[in-house]
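hey all, quick one before standup. I had two proteins in the batch that finished overnight and I want to keep them in one place so we stop losing track of which output belongs to which input. First protein below, input sequence then structure tokens straight from the run.
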Amino acid sequence: MDRHIAVPYDEKTARELKSGDLVYLTGTIYTARDAAHKRMYEAMEKGQALPFDLKNNVIYYMGPSPAREGRPIGSAGPTTASRMDKYAPALLDLGLNGMIGKGKRKAEVREAVIRNNAVYFAAIGGAEIGRAHV
């Protein structure tokens, strides 16, 4: 089933999704890779504020490449999610509602997704996000 969801979204929306749904997300989606996750995790441990509110939000595990001339950003493809597995359960417990990446997740992450009624959106590697220019 095709689903169109505005981010941030609530737990009820997450629970309505089924494996195999084709999901179109609109709104603000944050990007962060392993170094950013480590900094957020360390800030949490010190009781410091995070750079954005995790509650009901989505993080895209994006591996950017340099922008071509005249473009604001280059390819923005997904990166391997398992590099964030060490930090994901703590972020999910703080209210993160979704993650976009590629590849399998560790048991601890899968358990945290279930515990928090969150979603792991599996992205297709190698697909470029952007507008077609004809």
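OK second protein, same deal, sequence then tokens:
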Amino acid sequence: MLYKKSVFVFFVSFFCLILGLSSVVVFRDPEVIFHHSFRKMMSKNMRKADFGLINYENFDSVILGTDSLINASANEASQKIGGTFANLSIPEASFYERFVILNYLLKYKNIKHVILSFEFNHFDQEKNTKDKEAMDLYTGAWLSKWKIYLHKKNLKCVFFNKECDLMPVDINQPAEDYSFQEKRLGFGGFDNWLNNFKNNLFIQNTLKDLLGEAVQNRTSSEKIKRIFDTEIFPVLKNNSLTKFSIIIPPYSALYLVKNKSYFKDNLKAYRYLLERVKLLENVDIYWFFDDKFIFDIANYRDLIHFLPKYNSVQLDAIKNRIHLLTEKNYSKKENDLLKKLDQFDLNYYVYQIDPNWFE
């Protein structure tokens, strides 16, 4: 009798302990999984932060890009385009990650407008993710939400308020990086890179990229079509009441010429995109490679990341429906760009870099 009572007391105590600990986790919830943040804080990891923003913040339109759109202002988008925008952009996100989040977003929220970025050098990324547990929040079972709190770092944050990798809740520019001096120093032109590379790792890596091998093509036509047909096109087609504005980010001419063969090969992705969406009235595609902006290296901190002011140009384009890419104008825009790239002198920059600097 005493044995049974002891076992009963043990299990009841254990249950109460688990219940108590779980209650603390749910109440504190620093990752904003179970409820709105009482402390107005959210994860710095945008793959996780987007889950809380979608579930507990009020907006009806989104910016969902990668690094090319993290500095775009959702407030500015709201003013120029209308609606209430949130910037959910994720640095270095794959197409798969963004469309997992987009599918979840469109399922649980009435969204009027989605601004997306389509980076041609991401077309080889099928079901790539840098954080499977974060993605499971959007696709997994209810228990997947608890997995976030099984890590020592998160438990320390919950119970001891230590190692909390959090930032204030923000739907305007939560992932912006222009405020970081190390990255901002890269803007200003090629001479600026040569003068400051010794003390700046980002500039060093840019110069190494210029000296290194060109990116080799790794995206077959069949793979591009499969990604569009399975991951992208169904979302655009099945959400006809949502406006989709697709931005093709203006990488620098320096990058395009350096990797010209790779870029030319991947232009077929945009041609295929145009073919697929031509009958969808809710989709617009914006092309900025015909702007003089891409030929001025001072506008870039490296080969692809441009000044935030150009995000404002992109929002103006969406507002005024200019810089549109269509089946009718695509061939001319492509040919004009390739001609200009043929006249761009890559060697002028490469020959000023001494490989010995990095040894």
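Flagging for whoever picks this up: The CA atoms of residues 316 and 346 lie 31 Å apart. The beta strands are 41-43, 61-64, 85-87, 113-117, 166-168, 243-248, 283-287.
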